[in-house]
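Anyone up for a design puzzle?
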């Protein structure tokens, strides 16, 4: 089955109306320039939050996202650098505190994956880099943010369906996503009595720039077709899950992964 995909990922459903669920909040979103993070940044702004976007590459994406956030009447701070570097993560937090005066929401979403390989083909360099970007960044940034979080704050980590199903060509990547699930569970238990919630989202196949940049044309052509809904998701179909987990609507929810994957039923 061929997926019918618009080449441009859809960040916004035009019928979505914000209702002030994040009014006055300040959020950090890593990888907020592109794909899932971009949609989350726009939806958070639609719900009333100011957003700081951490991103890696100097291209038009960050500026475009900033413009869309500002069109919602919210502030947007762009911070470029590698979140796999602890000093940079501390710098992100300092800049956000200087600019917004507080942090209420942290979305650890930046991630990388590499073209499919067998275990024996995964170099040490790739292994180190994937873990640095996907896992170490989450430790570094969460550690730096934690002293600033007050009761009612929310941390949301982007995991993946691959943490649950495995993925033969993405062994390093899926292992990082398993680590994100475990981190989410462990940290949530240690922060629950402080009123700080830690949850995650486990996306299935989502049509973002990550996909054509790392998968073969053949895989891209059928991307998402094996899901029960027989299609990939669009970034705007993920963003409301993050709004829910960031807002007071999920005040009694912590340590959980929200699966947004086109209907695949998974354990855990
Ligand atoms: P994307 O490539 O559009 O966005 C990822 C962004 O992360 C990049 O634009 C970049 O700015 C940022 N980033 C990457 N490395 C970084 C670094 N070292 N420092 C700072 N920023 C960095 O991809 P996406 O699909 O939107 O991915 C977002 C998250 O969703 C990732 O964690 C990814 O693993 C996860 N995910 C994606 C899918 C999917 O099918 N697209 C499925 C499951 C999980």
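Challenge accepted. My sequence:
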């Amino acid at each position: 089955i061929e997926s019918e995909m618009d080449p441009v990922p859809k960040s916004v459903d035009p019928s979505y109306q914000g209702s002030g669920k994040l009014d006055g909040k300040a959020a950090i979103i890593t990888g907020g320039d592109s794909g899932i993070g971009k949609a989350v940044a726009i939806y958070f702004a639609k719900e009333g939050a100011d957003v700081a976007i951490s991103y890696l590459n100097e291209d038009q994406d960050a500026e475009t996202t900033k413009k869309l956030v500002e069109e919602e009447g919210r502030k947007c701070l762009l911070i470029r650098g590698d979140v796999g570097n602890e000093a940079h993560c501390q710098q992100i937090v300092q800049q956000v505190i200087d600019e917004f005066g507080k942090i209420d929401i942290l979305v650890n979403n930046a991630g990388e994956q590499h073209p499919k390989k067998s275990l024996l083909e995964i170099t040490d360099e790739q292994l180190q880099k994937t873990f640095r970007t996907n896992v170490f960044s989450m430790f570094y940034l969460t550690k730096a943010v934690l002293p600033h979080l007050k009761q009612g704050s929310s941390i949301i980590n982007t995991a993946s369906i691959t943490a649950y199903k495995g993925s033969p060509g993405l062994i390093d990547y899926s292992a990082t996503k398993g680590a994100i699930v475990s981190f989410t569970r462990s940290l949530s238990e240690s922060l629950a009595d402080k009123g700080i919630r830690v949850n995650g989202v486990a996306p299935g196949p989502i049509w973002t720039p990550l996909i054509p940049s790392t998968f073969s044309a053949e895989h891209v052509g059928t991307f998402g077709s094996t899901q029960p809904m027989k299609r990939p998701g669009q970034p705007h179909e993920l963003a409301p899950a993050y709004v829910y987990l960031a807002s007071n609507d999920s005040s009694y929810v912590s340590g959980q992964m929200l699966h947004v994957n086109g209907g695949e039923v998974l354990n855990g």
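A detail worth pointing out: DSSP finds nine helices and seven strands in the chain.
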